[in-house]
Structures are given as C-alpha cells and as structure tokens.
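Notes from hallway chat w/ T.B., transcribed later so I don't forget. T.B. wanted the structure written out for a chain they're using in a teaching module, and asked if we could keep both sequence and structure tokens in one place. Agreed to drop them here.
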Amino acid sequence: MLKRKKKTEVVSESPEAKAVHVQAKTGGRLNRSKLLISVVNRGDDEVLSELLNDYSVALSFSVMGKGTARSAVLTYLGIGTSEKAVMFSLIPESDEEEILNRIRTRMELYLVGRGISFTIPLSAVSEIVAGGISAAAAAKSVDWRKTMKDDDRKYDLIVATVAAGYVDEAMEAARNAGAAGGTILSARSVNNAKASQFIGISLREETDMLLILSQRSGKEAIMNAIMQSSGLKTEAGGILYSIPVDRTVGVGGSASDPEKAKGEESK
C-alpha cells in the first residue's frame, strides 16, 4: 500500500522575518533605521538618491526649499541660486558611517556651498518599512560601541516655525547669535485651533519653517535670539524646538580635498 506524501505548506517570509533569521545566523543584532537629512542644491537630490541605493537601501522623500545666504555670498561662492532640496531618507544604521563618507566625497560636500547631511536617531518606525530596510542590510553588523550617546553629540537641529513674511527676521536674529545659515521650507498651520486655545495665542495659517543646524554649545543663544525677535509674543508668532543630531558631513566644509575634510571632521 502506497503512502501518500503530506503536502507541505509554503509560507512566504516577510522582509522583517528574513532580517531576524539572517541576523540570528550571523550572530548580529537587528539593524535600526535612522533618519538621514540632506540639504543640497536642487537637482542634486536625484544624484544623492542614486548614491544611497547604489551602496545601501533608502526610503527617501524630497522637499523643495531655499537657502538663507545673501545674494552677495552666493556670488562670492559661485553659486547661481539659493534654491535647495531637503531630502529625508530612512537608512539602516549599519550603513550610516559609510553612507556619510560616500556623500562627503562623491557629492563633494567637503566644498563650501555644496550642502550638508546629518543623521538623527529615531524612536520608532513603521514595522514593515523597518523590516524591509533591515532585511536589505541583514548580513551587515552594527558596532554598538559606536552608537552615539547624548554626551557625544556636538550638533542639534533647530526648527523655527514663523508666520509667512517673518522668516528673514528670524534668520537675521539667529545669524547675529552665531548661526552660520539655514534652510527655509514653506508650511502651513493645520487644524491647530484647539492647541491655540491652550497656548493662548492665535497661530497664522501660512507659515515658513526655518531649519538651522547648530553646534550644541551655541544652540541656546540662537534659540533665545529667535524667541526675542520672532517668538510667540511677537507678530511672527514663532514656535521653536530642537532635535538631537548624531553625525554630520559638510558642516563648515572649506577643505580643498576629501582627505583633509575627513581629518577635520574627526577633530
């Protein structure tokens, strides 16, 4: 009598499950996703996206903005426009250091005016997205000894949201307090009537968002200057907060070559 073979059910494994299995085999720990923010000249965001996906995997979104450099400065640097692209990319933590190195050299962020890139720690990411990004880099390991601690961070991202038409005033105050520059994004207040009641101040619908990457040591002075000139108690109605930044490239970049820039970055 012939025995019938039992049919085995084939189950498609999810990206996050594959990542966990590969990490278990290699003895590593599951990669976390980190946020990479890049401010580059318009058109360079496409180049940057290709660079990220050539080496690693990235889920990227680009927003159009403009820089705050004065026209005389743009002429001096040989830059024809202040139009910028601000790209937000989710990347695997294992690739963070190499990605920043490649951005520095291939995007020439060691040159003044070419842009900046920096990473920000995340507390949570959509499970499916996080699993897919981890799966793409599952064979790579993370050196947890290099994980950035708060005491090691040197920069913060200052975000100031002010009423439309007041962003130049806010940036001037920030510059007088030591800020090197910033990037402006157009925004709008969305359904904030309830929050306005508790805050006690009416918020303008049309707003500008000012992003300033600041050294941690100078953050408080810059934020205080913006609050005095463009805070909630002024016509600008500014709202400010800051976000911790892990690693950066292109900050104060004036080196003539990648190796020198790399040396300056490590100081």
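Follow-up for T.B.: The longest helix spans residues 216-230. Might be a good example for the class.
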